[in-house]
Amino acid sequence: MEAKKNNRLSVQTSIKAPIEKVWELWTNPEHIVKWNFASIDWHAPKANNELKKGGRFVFTMAAKDGSMSFDFSGIYTEVLKHKMIAYTMDDGRTARVLFASEGITTQITEQFDAETENTHELQVLGWQAILTNFRAYAESQNLSVIIGRKHLHLN
User: Fold this and answer.
1) How far apart are CA 32 and CA 105, in angstroms?
2) Predicted structure pTM score
């Protein structure tokens, strides 16, 4: 799979959680395995993440029925904490993830080179589904923190 020049796709979402929490959930392998898949019949059994320039990441995505799996992997080219992560995938395509804080809300925008095997629409749908899954996971974690804090204050 090779990316064509000027063939950049983008997905985005807003998450009701502070940027520090969103960053931790996005980058920590303990959390990545809980959200990094596009549908309920898939999961992420493994995640390795060396979050630094020149660091390597490998996230395994697999069908729950065992019929197929693949590694999403590459090398980080730039990491700016709470702002941006840029990387080159093992197939040579590039991507970047932008984080923007808007009070208690965090905006995430992913920009990525299209591959040539699937339509742009299908690629956007897949990347957006994973981002939507992340948003649901992050907001559920943030809600747990809020509820936990209120519970602590009630005692």
Assistant:
1) 20
2) 0.87
Q: How confident is the model at residue 95 (pLDDT cuts 50, 70, 90)?
A: very high
Count Cβ atoms below 10 Å from residue 92 Cβ, excluding itself: 12
Give bridge partners of residue 62 from the DSSP assignment: 43, 69
State the DSSP code for 45.
E
- Tokens representing 54 are 């020149």
**Cα separation of 72 and 94, whole Å?**
12
CATH number at residue 128: 3.30.530.20
**Alpha helices per DSSP H over 73-119:** none
The rounded distance, in Å, linking the Cα atoms of 110 and 25 is: 16
* Any domain includes 1: no
Matching residue, tokens 């093992």: 90
Side chain identity at residue 107, one-letter code: Q
Q: 105: how many CB neighbours lie within 10 A of its CB? A: 14
